[in-house]
Structure formats: C-alpha cells, structure tokens
Design a protein that fits this description.
549 residues; TIM Barrel; Jelly Rolls; nine-stranded antiparallel sheet; eight-stranded parallel barrel
C-alpha cells in the first residue's frame, strides 16, 4: 500500500464461522514455545436471513423480495404501492437476539410491524415491534425478548406518504457457537508510531493502547506489516517484535504481513529493497528464503511465534520488480514470481518452530472480483505454490464493486479452491469530514464524497458497523464453512502520523478508523459484536435503535 497526498491512492493495500474446515487449525495453534493462550471469543452475531428465502405480497418490477436478504443494503425490495408484506424463511428454527432493517435513503419514511413464527402460519406479535417508525438511510435495530426462537419473520411496511417503500436489508441476528474460533483482528502497525507521537486512545472512558482496546472489543489476532529497511520509526523487525510482545501479553495471535520492500508495497509498487539491489533471480530467491526464515525465527525466539503469515502484500502483479513482476513485457513473469513465492514459503516453514502451526496466506487485493481472483489463485496452483489461506482486500470507497461482489467472490473462491478465506484488509468511513484540516497538513482523505459510499451504508459509525457485520455474515455463509476471518485495516491511524516522513504530510485514512480524531473509540470499535447490542449500549432504551454520526 502506498499513500498519496490527495484523495486517491496510487495503490491501496487493502469469520466466517469456523465449522469443520482446514482452517480450524487457527483455533488450535500449539501453545508451545511460550505462546499465550488466546482469549475465548464469544460467538459473533450472524445475520441468519442471509441464508434464508424471501417472498413478498407485492414488489415493484426490478426490486424483488430476494433483494431484502442478499447481504447488500444497497439492493432493495420495493412495494408496488403504499404497503406490502415481506416473509422470510430462515430455513430452520434459529435462536434470535435482534432484528435489523435498513430503508433505502430515497424511500419515504414508513411504519412497520414485525411478527415471528416457529412454524408456518403460527405468527406471534412482539408488542415492541408493532407500528414502529422507520427512517430512511440509516441501519436500525430492534431488540427481541430473551430466548426468542423463530424460523419465519414477517415484515409489513406502511408508507407515511403513499409512495412505495424500499427496504435495503432485513436482518435477523442470532449467535452461532461455531463462530467462536474464527480469526478476528485489526492491523495495528501504526500503534507504536501513534503512541510515540503522543496520541492517546480511550474506550468506554478508560485510556489504553489500541492493542488492549481491540482485545476488549473481541479481537483475537493482531496483524502487523514488516518492511525490510523503512524510514526511521516505521514498521521494521525491531518495532514488530516489540509490538508482538504487547500482542502476546494481551493473549492474542500474530498475523505477519511481510512486504519484501523497504516501504509501501501494493499492486502498483513492489520495489526491491535497497540492500538487495543488483541481485539476479537466483540470488533474490536465496535472499527471500533466508530473510523470511530469519524473520519467523526471530518472533519464535522471543516466545511470540507467528500464527499466520502472508508472503507479500497484495501481490496481484508480483513482488520484487522487475525480477518477480508479472503481466508485463520484459519482466520475470509467472515462473519467476512463483519461484520467489516458494522461497518465501520455504523460509517461513524453516523458521517456524517444531510443533507450532503456521498458516501461509497468499494475499490478493481485488476482493469483489471473482473473475480476477479466480485467475490469480488458479495461476498459483498451476505453478505449484503451496499455501493454506486465501487473503482478500476489500475497499469499496476506492472504486471496488459493492458488497454483493464480495459475496459472489467469497462463494466462488470457496467452491473452486476449497481453501479458507480471510478478508485480510477492509475499511469503511465513519465520516466524510477531513480530520487533517485542523492540523494544516493538506492531506486529502481517500473518502470525501457521498458518491464513494456503498448505498445503504452511510458514512457514520452506524453505517461502518453495519458494513463490517454484513461482511462477517457473508463470510459466515460461505460454502463449506470456508469463510474464516476478517482484519480491519489501520483502525488506530488517527491524525498525527504521516503516511511517509516529511513536513506537511498527513494520513488520508483518518475518517476510516475505529477511533475519532481525538482517539476516542467509536461505537463501531465493536465490529465483532452484535450490532443491535452495540447500538443499545450507545443509545440505551431507544427502539428502533440508530447509531448516528
């Protein structure tokens, strides 16, 4: 990933519920070599409606009932008149905690009643869900009585103006015990720099490190990047080892993102480190293997062994250009690229201590394109590159297709390759305001206009929370239970640390963090929790509950 001083990146580096899958080893990593036992993660809430079926008494042409439960709040079921009823079959009786609704932002305000049933036709009215007010644009949540079980939900909407009502998403949240082993985390590579710069962070009124805060919010992993010889203060081996000790002290695991570059590496930049310049392919192959072995060994020696490692960051166009560059004239091509990848895998395995499970990820950036993702991973397999995990980046505000594209890709990759899938990087804005303006650094933010937003997900902490929990539910429904985890990128990169050293340079990501500009945790810090319960804590006693700006 490389940062640029205005609006758009040159290249942006950007769980499912563990059933019986190869990725179950994540939850059973050996505790040898001094590794701390990770905390038990409560089962995240899953939107069971996503795997259900929907019918409606009325639907406007092009806006069918199925759109209301497809995992994308930007696709609508619309009535063809002032009222209509949506019926959702969850497929089996489910334990439910809460319900959620997002009206299209262009929909008229409306009223609604919701009934539940365990058997077809046996409708039971929940008193608190009769004639409730619905406002367009923001995700809304409705708590249910304790120990509510249902297979069917029926939503009847009534327009307040007589115009058609459009529902972007109807959600039915309930726990899935199998989810307690999934990999949930965030990339906290900026934490050491932020703290060194004097930034402070707080959660529920208590000051703490982002590492501790993310753990309290439900994370069981921390992702950290590694550069070979970056500018002073940026993520090198020494700073990563220090961060790893904090991660271990908080009982979490380590996902290491090795960039094989001195600074930002992404689909547009994969520069050979200065110390490796002049080496031919054979020499680079040996260097990659030796370097990777030394890195993985260093983490193990201090009692913080790496649980998951990506060999390169967003390697769509190769690594170590031009020797390992692909899809270009006069560069190394796939054979050279995969030779370097195999060297990295061999080095990681050689440095990994006996008895410790290390998962190897190959990280691709176009998370909402099945056609491109499939071609990439097919190429890796055709050249015999060994790896355990498919890693995807997904940043819709940077021009990627909407979240329905992510769902199609996750489902397609799981079916084709049969490997666990992790969203290795994702972000969404909690505001379109520029947090850098008071600092006078002149750095534009990547997200600055409403046209960049996914419809159905406003630039608020509530929209941010809804977006990530929809991603998690998509992973939860992946074929074969192969959706395996999610990492939020740079939730702690608040104003104060620039994307590169220099006067007048700032961060273009400050409005996509999980903290406000002053370091106070937003409600969306709880991206791994039931969103309705998060909303209730932020706005006690409100129903429907909305997390605003």
């Amino acid at each position: 990933m490389r940062r640029t001083p205005h609006g758009w990146p040159l290249g942006f580096g950007a769980a499912a519920l563990l059933l019986v899958t190869p990725f179950a080893t994540v939850a059973a990593v050996s505790q040898s070599h001094g590794a701390a036992r990770p905390p038990r993660t409560a089962a995240p809430a899953v939107n069971w409606a996503l795997s259900g079926a929907a019918t409606a008494t009325t639907a406007e042409s092009g806006y069918p009932a199925s759109n209301a439960i497809d995992g994308n709040a930007g696709t609508d079921w619309c009535t063809s008149g002032w009222t209509g009823t949506l019926t959702v079959d969850l497929g089996q009786v489910r334990a439910l905690d809460d319900l959620g609704i997002t009206l299209d932002s262009a929909s008229p305000s409306a009223s609604a009643s919701i009934e539940l049933a365990t058997t077809a036709g046996g409708w039971q009215q929940v008193p608190a869900l009769r004639d409730v007010a619905l406002d367009p644009g923001s995700p809304m949540y409705f708590p249910l009585p304790r120990r509510t079980s249902a297979r069917y939900a029926e939503l009847t909407v009534y327009s307040d103006t007589g115009a058609d009502v459009c529902v972007g998403e109807f959600r039915a949240y309930g726990p899935d015990p199998a989810a307690s082993g999934m990999a949930l985390g965030a990339d906290l590579s900026f934490t050491p720099q932020e703290l060194a710069a004097g930034a402070t962070f707080s959660y529920q009124g208590r000051q703490a490190s982002p590492v501790t805060i993310m753990r309290e919010a439900g994370a069981n992993y921390v992702r950290m990047r590694l550069w070979v010889d970056p500018p002073p203060g940026y993520s090198n081996l020494a700073s990563d080892l220090a961060l790893a000790r904090q991660v271990r002290a908080n009982g979490m695991k380590i996902y290491l993102d090795i960039m094989y570059s001195d600074f930002w590496a992404d689909p547009q930049h994969q520069n050979i480190p200065a110390a490796w310049q002049g080496q031919d392919l054979a020499q680079l192959t040996a260097t990659v293997q030796s370097y990777t072995r030394q890195v993985i060994s260093a983490f193990a020696r201090q009692g913080t062994p790496v649980a998951m490692v990506s060999i390169g960051n967003e390697i769509r166009n190769g690594i170590l250009w031009p020797a390992g560059e692909i899809n270009c004239t006069g560069c190394g091509g796939w054979a050279s690229f995969t030779q370097l990848l195999k060297a990295g895998v061999a080095g990681a395995q050689a440095g990994n201590p006996p008895g410790h499970k290390l998962l190897i990820m190959m990280h691709y950036d176009q998370g909402a394109s099945f056609t491109l993702s499939s071609a990439f991973y097919s190429g890796l397999e055709s050249y015999g590159v060994p790896f355990d995990v498919i890693g995807l980046s997904y940043y819709p505000v940077l021009g990627e297709p909407p979240i329905s594209g992510l769902r199609a890709n996750v489902d397609g990759l799981a079916t084709e390759f049969g490997k666990p899938i992790v969203i290795a990087e994702t972000q969404y804005p909690w505001t379109l305001a520029n947090g850098n303006s008071p600092l006078g650094d002149g750095t534009g933010d990547f997200a600055w206009q409403t046209s960049q937003l996914d419809p159905g997900y406003p630039a608020t902490p509530g929209g941010q929370l809804s977006f990530v929990t929809d991603e998690l539910s998509i992973l939860a429904q992946a074929p074969g239970g192969l959706g395996a985890g999610l990492f939020y990128w740079a939730p702690d990169w608040i104003p104060g640390v620039p994307w590169e050293p220099g006067a007048g340079i700032g961060s273009p990501n400050v409005n996509m963090t999980l903290f406000n500009f002053a370091g106070q945790a937003l409600p969306s810090i709880n991206i791994f929790a039931n969103p309705a319960q998060v909303c209730e804590r932020a706005n006690p006693g409100s129903s429907p509950c909305v997390i605003g700006g």
